[in-house]
């Protein structure tokens, strides 16, 4: 293998390692397996994930950029605490962006995309009815992904993803709260109906109302959020 090929292989391998560690850490943080303040020791993560030090460092850098991890001078990295006030501020920004994306989705959705959105709604209904809140949480993310695909606004979608990374733990816990799930479903159904009817005003208003519902729930359940 030439020097250039070896260098390229190391770069690709590091990127793959980073993505694996980043994904697993993100999931662990969102589930609450790693609580705010949990120390992220590079050597421990290397052993846990079987990854290189460089891959672990790149993953921590990516999570730090998303606001999930913070680096403390002379102490290393740890899971960052996102306060309720900060989470509410982030969701207020999300409210504007989600409203825009839902409006654009209603304006430009194809019949096939609407069918996908409606099918996902049926799965959300079934998950809530059966009490399968873990699946329901995943389906909420699928709903947002479909709307973003419909909207064809990659800049707005990228901003949402960056904001979402910081509050994923709050929303993860809320979506699994048995009292919140039916309310959340009802709010999202209004978004689906408006998009399916190609009504931009209703779609934007419904998306904003859903985020306001999330905010209200976070403020009323600060311990669970």
Structure write-up:
This protein has 225 residues and is mostly helical. It has nine helices and three strands; from the N terminus they run αβααββαααααα. Strands 1-3-2 form a three-stranded antiparallel β-sheet. Helix 1 crosses helix 3. The longest helix is centred in the N-terminal third of the chain and has 29 residues. The radius of gyration is 19 Å and the shape is globular. 32% of the residues are buried. The model has no long low-confidence stretch (mean pLDDT 87).
Please identify the top-level CATH class of the largest domain.
Answer: Mainly Alpha
**By helix and strand content, what is the structural category?**
mainly alpha
Question: Gyration radius, to the nearest Å?
Answer: 19 Å
Which CATH architecture of the largest domain would you pick? Up-down Bundle
Number of strands: 3
Instruction: Give the distance, in angstroms, between the N- and C-terminal Cα atoms.
Output: 52 Å
Features of the shown structure:
225 residues; mainly alpha; Four Helix Bundle (Hemerythrin (Met), subunit A); three-stranded antiparallel beta sheet; 9 helices; 3 strands; 77% helix; globular
Offer a quick outline of the entry.
The chain has nine helices and three strands.
SSE inventory with pairings:
Elements (H helix, E strand, L loop, with lengths): L2 H29 L7 E2 L1 H8 L3 H13 L3 E4 L3 E4 L4 H25 L2 H20 L2 H19 L2 H22 L4 H17 L3 H21 L5
Antiparallel strand pairs: 1-3, 2-3
Helix pairs in contact: 1-3, 1-7, 4-6, 4-7, 4-8, 4-9, 5-6, 5-8, 6-7, 8-9
């Amino acid at each position: 293998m030439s020097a250039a090929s070896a260098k390229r292989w190391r770069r690709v391998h590091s990127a793959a390692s980073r993505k694996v560690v980043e994904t697993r850490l993100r999931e662990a943080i969102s589930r609450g397996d790693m609580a705010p303040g949990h120390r992220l020791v590079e050597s421990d993560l290397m052993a846990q994930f079987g990854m290189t030090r460089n891959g672990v460092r790149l993953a921590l850098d990516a999570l730090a950029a998303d606001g999930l991890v913070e680096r403390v001078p002379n102490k290393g990295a740890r899971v960052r605490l996102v306060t309720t006030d900060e989470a509410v501020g982030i969701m207020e920004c999300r409210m504007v962006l989600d409203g825009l994306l839902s409006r654009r989705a209603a304006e430009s959705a194809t019949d096939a995309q609407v069918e996908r959105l409606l099918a996902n709604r049926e799965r959300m209904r079934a998950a809530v009815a059966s009490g399968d809140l873990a699946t329901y949480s995943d389906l909420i993310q699928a709903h947002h992904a479909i709307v973003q695909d419909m909207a064809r606004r990659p800049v707005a979608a990228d901003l949402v993803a960056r904001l979402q990374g910081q509050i994923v733990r709050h929303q993860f816990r809320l979506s699994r709260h048995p009292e919140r799930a039916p309310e959340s479903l009802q709010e999202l159904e209004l978004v689906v109906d408006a998009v399916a009817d190609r009504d931009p005003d209703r779609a934007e208003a419904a998306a904003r109302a859903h985020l306001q519902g999330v905010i209200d729930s976070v403020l009323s359940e600060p311990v669970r959020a």
